[in-house]
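User: I've been trying to design a sequence by hand for this structure and keep getting stuck. Would you show me what you'd pick, starting by listing the structure so we're on the same page?

Assistant: Good idea, let's start from the same input. This is the structure you sent:
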């Protein structure tokens, strides 16, 4: 897909910003706090209907304004034009999403139409951080490629909350209310198993793409590995095996769950293990290897989504140029701009100096106090 125009009104510190984008590389330069990341956040709003980091819409609203809009004009790979607009009204506390002026009832139904791959400093936790950080990454990728998966996740969260509530009551009252928990066990197993099957299938597909992406970036003989490690053991995935093992695991854990008041097994406790040459990356990888792994994950995400969504994703790189060395940086940009469109933020006007990306129609935007101050087209960034 090609993002042709971005319009932000009363969005963070952007009162009224219009950006005509290059189909290749778009770079937003500016000092700290000028509103560069806010532009990427705006893109995230009309592509994913929400921020890629802020939890709620009201913080995005320009202070003192009654409403904001983030609008994107997108040309799909198949040549269809879309205008997607997300509007948030403070007084009604309501978010409205429209595609070509037609209202979208369920915001989640838009996920996957306009795929986005985001790399920002917070993503370092994917390789360094807790299992929850890796689950969030995997869920984000799979959700963009499968509506059913996204709906299952939403459903699972609801079921888990209810089940935990009952367990918490049992903990407080020191009782054992089997009748109350049974129906929730069944739902947890049904929806949870479908998530687990999809995760397993995803990792099988993604592994090979990741190996290729890593080789493209590192150019060395290192080999990355990704393993799915569910919260309970189950044999090969055939028929009802996951469901049966899930049920057994719940039975085994029930007394502990009652004691501590929450659910101990299920996809919310799954882990994904990242390895380099067979060693656990979290514990053994060097700083540079962590970076390579993370960028390779993002590149693999790009190719996976391109394939699965039948739409080339756009790549958003927030403040990552200074973190990556030049070699990795060039490889990433080459790989992404060969097929897609990239949006980069940087405080360093010279961060891309010497990087010949002539084929990518680079366009430089200088951002100051929530405005585009200057635009430069450059075939050679310097
Ligand atoms: N709701 C809001 N209303 C008005 N201004 C806001 C709002 N939220 C954030 N800002 C302002 O936006 C600016 C931050 O924008 P942004 O995060 O895009 O900066 P940046 O250019 O990416 O900076 P850095 O280089 O430090 O990452 C700050 O000046 C902040 O005060
Ligand atoms: Mg920023």
């Amino acid at each position: 897909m090609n993002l042709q125009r971005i319009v932000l009104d009363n969005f963070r510190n952007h009162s009224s910003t219009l950006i005509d984008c290059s189909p290749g590389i778009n770079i937003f330069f500016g000092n700290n706090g000028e509103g560069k990341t806010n532009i990427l956040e705006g893109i995230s709003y009309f592509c994913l209907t929400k921020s890629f980091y802020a939890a709620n819409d009201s913080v995005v609203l320009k202070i003192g304004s009654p409403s904001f809009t983030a609008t994107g004009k997108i040309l799909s790979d198949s040549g269809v034009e879309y205008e997607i607009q997300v509007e948030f009204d403070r007084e009604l506390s309501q978010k409205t999403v429209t595609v070509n002026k037609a209202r979208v009832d369920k915001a989640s139904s838009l996920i996957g139409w306009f795929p986005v791959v985001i790399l920002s400093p917070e993503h370092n936790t994917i390789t360094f951080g807790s299992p929850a950080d890796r689950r969030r990454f995997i869920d984000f990728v799979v959700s963009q490629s499968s509506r059913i998966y996204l709906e299952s996740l939403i459903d699972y969260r609801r079921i888990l909350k209810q089940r935990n509530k009952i367990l918490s009551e049992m903990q407080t009252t020191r009782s054992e209310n089997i009748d109350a928990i049974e129906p929730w066990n069944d739902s947890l197993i049904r929806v949870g198993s479908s998530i687990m099957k999809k995760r397993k299938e995803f990792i099988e597909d993604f592994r090979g793409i990741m190996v290729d992406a890593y080789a493209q970036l590192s150019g060395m003989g290192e080999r990355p590995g990704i393993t799915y490690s569910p919260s309970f053991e189950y044999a090969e995935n055939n028929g009802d095996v996951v469901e049966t093992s899930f049920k057994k695991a719940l039975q085994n854990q029930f007394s502990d769950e009652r004691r501590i008041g929450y659910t101990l097994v299920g996809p919310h406790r799954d882990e994904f293990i990242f390895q380099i040459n067979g060693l656990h990356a979290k514990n053994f990888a060097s700083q540079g290897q962590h970076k390579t792994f993370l960028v390779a994950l993002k590149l693999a995400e790009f190719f996976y989504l391109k394939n699965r969504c039948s739409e080339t994703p756009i790549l958003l790189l927030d403040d990552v140029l200074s973190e990556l060395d030049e070699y990795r940086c060039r490889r990433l940009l080459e790989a992404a701009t060969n097929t897609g469109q990239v949006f980069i933020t940087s405080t360093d006007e010279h961060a891309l100096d010497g990087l010949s990306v002539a084929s990518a129609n680079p366009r430089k935007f200088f951002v100051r106090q929530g405005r585009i101050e200057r635009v430069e087209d450059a075939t050679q960034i310097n």
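That's my pick for every position. To get oriented when you compare it with your attempt: The mean pLDDT is 91. The domain at 1-115+315-382 is CATH 3.40.50.300 (Rossmann fold).
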